Amino acid sequence: MRPRLSLAPTLLAALVALPAVGGCQSDASTPTAADELSVVTRPIVNGVAETGWPGVGALTFEFNGHYAGSFCSGTLIAPSWVLTAGHCVTGPEIEQQGIKPSNTRFLIGNDARSAQGGGPADGTLYAVDAFVPHPNYNPNTNSNDIALVHLTEPITGVEPNAFQAESIVAMVQAASDAETQVQVFTVGFGATEGIQSSGSGLKRSTTVNLDHLEPLDYVSNFVDSGTCFGDSGGPGFADVDGVPHVIGITSAGYGCSPFNPNCDPCQTATISTRVDVYADWVRTTLEGGDPTCQNVPAMCLCGEACLEDGSCDDTVCHVADCRDTYNCANACDSDACREACINAGTPDAQERVAPLLECAAEKCADAGTPGSQQHRSCVRAQCSIAYNVCTGSGPTTTGDQDCAHVYDCMSLCQTSDCQTACQEQGTLDAQGQVSALTRCLRQQCRDEATDEAYQACAHEKCQGDIDVCFPAVFGDADCASIAPCRDACDDDAPSCRRDCFDAATADAQAAYEALGDCAAAACTGADGGITEGCPAESCAPESLMCTPEMVIGAGCDLAGGGCPTGTACVTTADGTACAPAAGLGDGEACAADATPRDCADGLECVVASDSSGGVCGVPCEDADGDGVCVDLDCDDTAAGTFPGAEDVCGDGVDQNCDGTPDDGCVSEPIPVDGTSGKKSSGCAGGADATGLLALGAALLLLLRRRRAAV
Q1: pLDDT top residue among 563 and 157
Q2: DSSP 408-476
Q3: β-strands 270-274, 243-253: how paired?
């Protein structure tokens, strides 16, 4: 299995640095899903996760045919109408992001974040057919910041929310007279902080105070909680005769001074559009029925496309790009419809879309309905080059490099053009593999705040894609060679460092990662770097496997050790030195003056009684210290009694544990007072020979039956 990301070459750095395929937006006019809709929007800060208020939803959009998350909040005020902010549907930033009714969906649910495999984590998406901003909305001043979004089909089963039609001046004045403030319950899908704009997509709520009214809006100061990017268009509710009414729409924030770099722009006052000021316009628009190109000219691609019945014939415009042409054709259920969509495209779009439609028909005919998530995934995988040529995103040619090379190359990029160039070095399979990996990381781990959390998330959620892109490769080099090899690589050569890692054996790679894990856990300083000297001190066993020069020292004391934990003092050709404490195995001879560490872990040197040498074995319980384990000793309380010992004649004790006291002795009792008579000249068979044989037998039994130490 492929090693984890800790010290495997460059992958962790790449995971943290690389936002997604398509990458940075600084030099590209075409938006990417990685930009996560950087429109001027606001989220709930220090709020709570909200599972109620089903009529409050999120405006989401699709990028290149796949779900890309939420960009604003909105409120269902009629079965087919959503109330939101003007800057959520029109203006330069919306145009730059490519957001339009055809790729916008209204989410009814609680979690608009991307789920694995596409689509939102929770909720139902409803198609949109028209944006209706207030006719006097000014994107330069953000005045009259209110809009309506019309849904293709009405939503059933969800109660629309009431909006405030009467002036709220009296309500605010009454609260002021009572020396209090109107409390506004705010709901949205925005971020939780404004410096990194993280945490968006989850429905949250909080209560803020209405501090003061303006002619077109009201202001709420930030006190412990407030709104942030992504909450734009979300409602502010207040009780009117016991019924919650939408009295405001989150519009903008006061922001931060450029001279205060540590300021969080979401911890400032929020400006909300007053709904009561625009109630007549809202009511008139709703009562006018479904929007037509006569009252919403932006519905058609060009003015000439607006027909007398209010519908659009965009084929006369010939302004649709390849992406819109393809999406239009995918939504058709007849050849005539598809032909009309193609005719609506520019000449360039028609030329680009033809091979994509042909490829999709050939390779994805059985992959679900055109336009479905399953079909889109098939087209992106099987027709990726034609798809990218059409949409203007990603590589449009192929090379001969594998996924790992492409990913390493992309990890060094700062622009989307650079990332695309890297992708084009890869084979078609490699491009698909790296896209799958970066998509998984973006969807699953983009909200992780630290490198450690990101790495853990990557291994938990995307390990399968990592293994595909970075398959296990092993060589014959040892662990000690990895670090010097990697150190010799240039900083901008991640493939070089990966090759150093792949050149090592499987055990060496595992040891290298173990050292990295230990160093990261035990040796990381306040600056995020590795503390000098720490790995050798705190990770000695791991360091010895890879960087022995950091730990092994000469001239250690065989008797006292003096080596770091996990090492042992051993005899070498040049004297003594600390070495990894692998130790001698069970049954191997050890020196009489050996330390326990000379034997492998769990063994000790069992020394013969004459101290001439010993053998490594499993230590056992030996209460009387006679060198014989308790399960072999007939009396473990008497040091002179053990198998093979010499019987003392006349004492009635079975010292040799053979079941017969005074075995082989001459029948001459020893006086009980010890003052007369004499001991036999010895046991039968000769004392010297018997003693040596007994000692050998005892040592043999001892080594064969060693048990766990006590």
Answers
A1: 157
A2: HHHTT-SSHHHHHHHHTTB-HHHHHHHHHHHHHHHHHHTT--SHHHHHHHHHHHHHHHHHHHS-----S
A3: antiparallel
CA separation for the pair 316, 167 (Å, rounded): 46
Give all strands of the β-sheet with 589-590 in edge-to-edge order: 589-590, 614-617, 604-607
How many residues are there in the chain?
A: 710
The structure tokens 């050709």 sit at 573
Which is nearest to 89 in space by CA: 156, 39, 27, 25?
39
**Residue predicted with more confidence, 661 or 489:** 489
Q: Would you kindly state where each structural domain of the chain is located, as residue ranges? A: 169-277, 305-391, 618-710
581 half-sphere exposure, CB direction, 13 A CA radius: 22
pLDDT at 682 over 60: no
Task: Assign a CATH topology to domain 169-277.
Answer: Thrombin, subunit H (2.40.10)
Asked if pLDDT for residue 271 goes beyond 50, the answer is yes
User: Which residue would you say has higher pLDDT here, 274 or 681?
Assistant: 274
Strand partners, 57: 74
Whose tokens are 């609506």? That residue is: 344
Strand partners, 579: 568
pLDDT of residue 18: 28
Look at residues 416, 38, 51 and name the one whose alpha carbon lies nearest to residue 200.
Answer: 38
Cα gap 185→48, rounded to integer Å? 12
pLDDT of residue 616: 76
Tell me the average pLDDT of the chain. Answer: 74
